[in-house]
Input
Amino acid sequence: MINLLKHELRSRLGAIVGWSISLALFGFIYLSIYPELRDQLFLLGDTSLWKAMKFEVGSFEGFVASIVVQLIPVYLGIYIIITSTDTIAGEEDRGILELLLSLPLTRCQIIAVKAIAISVASFVILAFAGLGSSFTLQMVKGSVETIITPWSLFLAILSGWPITLTFIMIGLFLSSYLPNRRSAASILTFLFITSYLAETLTNYVPSLEALKYLSLFYYFDSSARIFTEGVKFGDALILLGLAAFFFVLAVLSFQRRNVTVGAWPWQRAKLSK
Amino acid sequence: MNYGSHRGISDVNLSVEEGEIFGLLGPNGAGKTTIERVLMDIIRPSKGHATIFGQDCQNEGVAIRKRVGYLPSEFGLYPNMQGAAFINLIASMQQKPVDRAYHQQLLERLDLDPSRKLREYSRGNKQKFGIITAFMGKPDLLILDEPTVGLDPLIQKVVLELVLEAKKEGRTVFFSSHNLPEVQAICDRVGIIRRGQLIKTERVETLTKQQFKRMILTLRQTPPIDAFFLEGVTETGRNGQVVMLDVRQGLNKVMEKAVFYGVENIETIPVTLEEIFLAYYGGKNNECDDD
Output
């Protein structure tokens, strides 16, 4: 099992490096251009559409939270959708899963290894993005007055991990439940986008406010408050609980899966045991 | 079992003896691969169960798979991995001590250089990786799905030698193939599967000797065209006084007729497994594409 985990991590090394550099660069660019854009952004700060989009660009803290802290996990979502839906359905499509299942490993071990590998990869990517952004903050601190410390920015970016983890586990569940990767990726993309839009729209449209609890992004604080009040551990726990729930669903549906058959869940026969 | 709109396998009741080579025959879509996948717990049966070494394939799959080497009919490899690293990875997960000398011997006999990335290998060379990973742990049971597909004739011969060596060491081999001469050459017993049902299990020599007799009769007089229109007898050819017959039953009636027209010579020809297989399928390969 350890050897499989090592292999899974090693095979993700390229993606980890690429995504870490890209997201660190994203933080670097937006933090370093802020001093030049400060006045224009201040004027835009009161625009209701920006507020609805949860972009509080009127202050540096709001800008960093809205752009860097909020968007890094959103962009990382692309990697999550690609990778998590590839684990079961994708590997089944490519014939790798049949080879893995012929080894003396339980299905639970196989899916757990894959879940751990993607979770670690996403954590490392966020950590590097956080380090890069914190380093940039240290560089621009002389030209901006702010309460944000490199450490608090690092923690704020890492606070995107629970929501990332939840989407990883949903992707893993869809990948083990649906017959092919295309369906799993389509549904996860839909869930990701609607969840993000639902959270921003419920800010904008008061009549939709009650729906905000249904959006996973509601439990991810990407407002300037994160730098004063810190990470909301209650919300993080809700997301981690959901991640655990979807992981259990993924394990259960993988146990039931007739690998190589590709049937939809309602077409699958009831198992004898 | 059935899955989705696909037909699966049903009423497959077969046992394989320790130390024998058992061949599973059937056209595409007959259910050969499904049987092997059920044994490997890749597909789970909706009814019934499969056991290997007396253990349930579903509940004790891990213990079973420690003693089994499996070659799927179609499998994928990690394209960016180096061949040798792939073999080492699979070996490390098989939870068996690695016999480096045997491992090296397999590489040499199969003429495989594992130093390149897996995506660079041809289909036949990828098949060799599957064969090596199935054989390298010297498992007690080998389940091989079309092991010689995509290989050149020399390597096909090596694979069959490996199978025979496994048998010599007392290990069991369960394999499916479309290549009937190779099945006839190495298998002790065969099972013929049709539309998901096992229709015959027999020792190869019994099957080839008892199933039907192919006779060439040389008679003194030219018999009329309907002379051998008998139940269980098919006239397969005729050249004047020479008549070729496949006789499933009623040999005594054939002999009576032959004596009536005067017998000059009777020759019996050994029947191949391929002919028997075609007889079961009426000469047609009419299953669906998916195995």
